[in-house]
Amino acid sequence: MNDASRTYDVVVIGAGPVGENAADRTVAAGLSTAIVERELVGGECSYWACMPSKALLRPVIARAEGRRLPGLSEALSGPLDPAAVFGRRDEFTSHWDDAGQVGWLDSAGIDLVRGHGRLDGPKQVVVATPDGGTVRLTARHAVVLATGTTAALPSLPGLDEVRPWISRDATGAKEVPGRLAVVGGGVVAVEMATVFQALGSQVTLLVRGQGLLPKMEPFAGELVADSLREAGADVRFGASVASVARTGGEVRIGLADGGELVADEILFATGRRPHTGDLGLDTVGLTPGDWLSVDDTCRVTAVEDGWLYAVGDINHRALLTHQGKYQARMAGAAIGVRAKGEPVDDRPWGAHVATADHAAVPQVVFTDPEVGAVGLTAAEAERAGLRVKVVDYDLANVSGASLFGDDYRGRARMVVDLDRGVLAGVTFVGPGTGELLHSATIAVAGEVPVERLWHAVPSYPTISEIWLRLLETYRQ
């Protein structure tokens, strides 16, 4: 085989968890597969997103929960040790060394090509390697794009000179800034505000809208905002950044209302954009920098002959690692049967389609309190034309929650599709509720009739007793 020109059944660009899952499924289907990666094998999730952020958050949440328990709270009166917190984070990122992930690729029979991969016409991928060379890869059956997203920064004069933090800088921080301004009100913003306030920063959260976590039920953002304020953070709504400038070690932030804020660092958590700007999309008739529209088997709809797939963040269906891995499993299986000339099971909830992208996307926000949600919010269900009943319950009135910690605060919501008699969505907000979410995901994805859920008896005394309370309230 000529190293500069290789042919595989499938070529995957992007070796994060999503690309790895796609490659694993195509190899399992008996297809030779190469995967291309320009940074670290394991991708954003392993080194700059899911793993480091949750490693940073876990001691913060554990301390908050412990402080609600008499007999333990007194032992937790001191500050967190930032060096120890960062050290544990470093262990979970393998100190940004991908040798273990590379070993997994080898064991799975997936060939790794390091470098920047770009499309170069139908089923062609050209890789610029770190040593300055070029490798051309030809795919017999499919090319899978799994290149993820990067931070979307606003257009502000002089922003580059300010050297703002993005999510990577926050999750990879080595020191705790004395004053941290966080711009945004979504998941990254609230999670990183939670971390750095607990580690000793004075955090100011600048939110352009009127609430946090705008894609979730309104009460989720309200409870998280209350908790951040109680922890000492300054949460400002209706606050837009008009200008930024760095003078010495300080960042001066001009606000649209004429006010000014001074911080040591500024984190922009204002959304994501797709890593498709330098991917060779123009060579196959697509626009560089665009999100890629796909069908339910994750084939790019605008490309003829069905050889190009896009999985994970870049198809803009659900910017979540677990959902991208799910898409990759479906896409990999579909590529396998198509390569063999076998029929695709494209029925809703079939073996080769990502139906859950539409109906049952779960997400946990690891703040204090935790937020877990799956399916539709009440507002989304109504916009979709569903006839629904919304059932709310105060989690503080659940025995398991009151045992979990004193002064427990939380809320649960169940959105019932009355015409089908199933759950359209569920939201839990409260300490320890993230681990409840999979039960809700099963109920929503499985379209379990509400009358059948009545017979799923929750263990007493656990927080999961919320299911009984929601169902009792629904039946009243």
Automatic annotation (TrEMBL):
Record InterPro entries: Class-I_Pyr_Nuc-Dis_Oxidored, FAD/NAD-bd_sf, FAD/NAD-binding_dom, FAD/NAD-linked_Rdtase_dimer_sf, Pyr_nuc-diS_OxRdtase, Pyr_nucl-diS_OxRdtase_dimer
Domain FAD/NAD(P)-binding: start-end pairs: 8-322
Required cofactor names: FAD
Domain of life of the source: Bacteria
Alphabetical keyword list: FAD, Flavoprotein, NAD
Keyword Flavoprotein appears in the UniProt entry: yes
Pfam families in the record: Pyr_redox_2, Pyr_redox_dim
Segments forming domain Pyridine nucleotide-disulphide oxidoreductase dimerisation: 361-467
Family as reported in the entry's similarity comment: Belongs to the class-I pyridine nucleotide-disulfide oxidoreductase family.
Protein name: NAD(P)/FAD-dependent oxidoreductase
Organism: Actinacidiphila acididurans
